[in-house]
Amino acid sequence: MMGFPLFPEVASTIAKSVDRLYFFLIGITVFFSVLIFVSILYFAVKYRRKPGRTAEQVSEGLGLEIAWTVVPFLITIVIFTWGSSLYIANSRVPDQAMDIYVVGRQWMWKIQHPSGRREINELHVPVGQAVKLTLASQDVIHSFFIPAFRVKQDVVPGRYVTMWFQPTRAGEYHLFCAEYCGTSHSAMIGRVVAMEPEDFQKWLGGVTEETPALAGERLFSDFNCVNCHATGARQRCPQLGGLYGTDVQLEGGAHVKFDEAYVRESIINPNAKIVKGYPPVMPTYRGQISEEQILDLIAYIRSLTPEKGQ
Ligand code: CUA
Fold this sequence. Notes:
Layout: H1 15-46, H2 62-91, E1 98-105, E2 108-112, E3 118-120, E4 122-126, E5 131-137, E6 142-146, E7 151-155, E8 161-165, E9 171-177, E10 189-195, H3 197-205, H4 212-222, H5 225-229, E11 247-249, E12 255-257, H6 260-268, H7 291-303
Parallel strand pairs: 1-5, 4-10
Antiparallel strand pairs: 1-2, 2-3, 5-8, 6-7, 6-9, 9-10, 11-12
């Protein structure tokens, strides 16, 4: 094997550019550390105590003061521009990205593919395809970290966060929880398996499980959502077909994008954003429904809007 790896493997499209910035930061740190230590030694020797030498008070040095203000300022501006442009580029999820849902809880990662395949503490992804993860936490803050892809995202309870990556090399990589989340935090680990696309398709098709959309449809009637959201005489709430991805007008004039976050909020806190023309009659499902069930419901509601829901 290799001797001493300084960095994790490089296995995603952004890994190299993250490393370049990192090397730059290390370079600056090393340069100034060496400069300071060498100067200390040099001046200690040069101005050491000698018989007859007296200290001379220097009160001002304008050139020096400007230099030690302007130079660090320019360096930090370079770091800021470089870092933020990389950050912005990495937060834009490509349009054709594949969707995978992740729920973190003490102490495991549960992963849900749209095809119905579920995994725990393992994430299978195809090489050469952008993958978008939508993450939720069932309890406390976790952090989804794949060092080989140079991606890390805090997963905060009560909201969805997204991250994306595109694997470039088939292989097995570490998956960590990078936020201390209780007793077994250190055991909240797993592996990411990047596979060639055809192997991935085989893996995906290997097991036939209920798709999230189907599970969601079942929950939609189990939780009696269908009573109010149905068509016909019983309808008291908005019909959900065709809404996903659109702008919805609210009571009071505001708009909201009908997306994962809005559906989740409407299940947990239904009165927060009422659709225009409807009464605030929906009860909250807080505490009665798990994050995974919410994701299933979202998949079902999404499937009612075929094009935009993709
Ligand atoms: Cu989850 Cu640490």
